[in-house]
Write a structure and sequence with these properties.
By secondary structure, the chain is α/β, with parallel strands linked by helices. Helices cover about 50% and strands about 15% of the residues. The radius of gyration is 19 Å and the shape is globular.
Length: about 280
């Protein structure tokens, strides 16, 4: 059984900290004795998270930041180093979760936003903070990916693509760090759907109940503290996804119908599907 590392006195930077899993992770690492850096584009929600930590006697800095802006990321990082010291753990949690049908041209700007935040945002955060970790030969980068990064899901084409990209990015970076004989640790977390946002969960059709946010948070923190390289939440789904991949296509489609997930279509998505649909397949 792996032992959990001690993060007391370390600086933990978490993006998407204004609500949901990001807020819960901020509070969890604060309780473990870490200094917290809250980063989110939502100033009000982000400050609320910071106030919750201050109210518990914690050390925290809050930054209102668009993680797709490299210059502002660099300025934020300089302020963190000046006020708290170098970042020991970076948790890339911020993400845009919105449904879209691949062939619907009306959602092109949404696709761009999802890719910019979910993939490029993580690239820019990593590229800013990783050099400091490499110089110290110490640090931990965490990516909150998704179970969707292991199996494509209709009605979430851009989000699926972004999470596949995140998981692939982390695998490639892991190989680079291995070439450098670096002690910087990487962790990729692939959770099932969680009850972090009612606007999302009420518009999704899934075969199993969403996982309580506290369960996702506790499992994520445990995996980070144990330096796990990659894991799903719940854990058994990792092997289930491997089994799914070796099935013939027709059986994969049947499993998707039985166990898969989809968002309720918006009107433009639904109209697009009706336009191109052939046969009697239900939408």
């Amino acid at each position: 059984m792996k032992t959990r590392k001690d993060v007391r006195g370390q600086v933990v930077l978490i993006t998407g900290s204004a609500r949901g899993l990001g807020r819960e992770l901020c509070l969890a690492f604060h309780r473990l004795g870490a200094s917290i850096v809250c980063v989110d584009i939502d100033e009000e929600g982000n400050e609320m998270t910071a106030e919750m930590i201050r109210g518990q006697g914690g050390t925290v800095r809050a930054f209102t930041l668009d993680i797709t802006n490299r210059e502002k990321i660099a300025s934020m990082h300089e302020a963190v180093k000046r006020d708290l010291g170098p970042v020991d753990i970076l948790v890339n949690n911020a993400a845009v979760v919105k449904p879209n049908i691949y062939v619907n041209s009306e959602t092109d700007e949404l696709v761009r936003k999802i890719i910019d935040v979910n993939i490029l945002g993580q690239f820019w955060m990593n590229k800013e903070i990783l050099p400091s970790m490499l110089n110290r030969n110490s640090g931990h980068i965490v990516s909150i990916s998704s179970l969707i990064s292991m199996v494509g899901t209709h009605s979430l084409s851009a989000y699926t693509a972004s999470k596949w990209g995140v998981t692939g990015m982390m695998e490639a970076l892991d190989q680079e760090l291995n070439m450098l004989n670096s002690k910087v640790v990487l962790t990729t977390v692939c959770p099932y759907f969680m009850d972090s946002n009612e606007d999302i969960t009420r518009n999704i059709s899934i075969s199993f109940p969403v996982i309580p946010l506290n369960v996702i948070c506790n499992s994520t923190v445990d995996g980070i503290l144990k330096n796990k390289k990659m894991f799903t939440i719940p854990g058994f789904l990792f092997l289930a996804m491997m089994f799914y991949k070796i099935l013939p296509s027709k059986l994969q489609y049947q499993m998707q119908k039985l166990l898969g997930a989809s968002y309720n279509y918006c009107k433009s998505d639904y109209d697009t599907l009706k336009k191109y649909q052939r046969g009697t397949t239900s939408l």
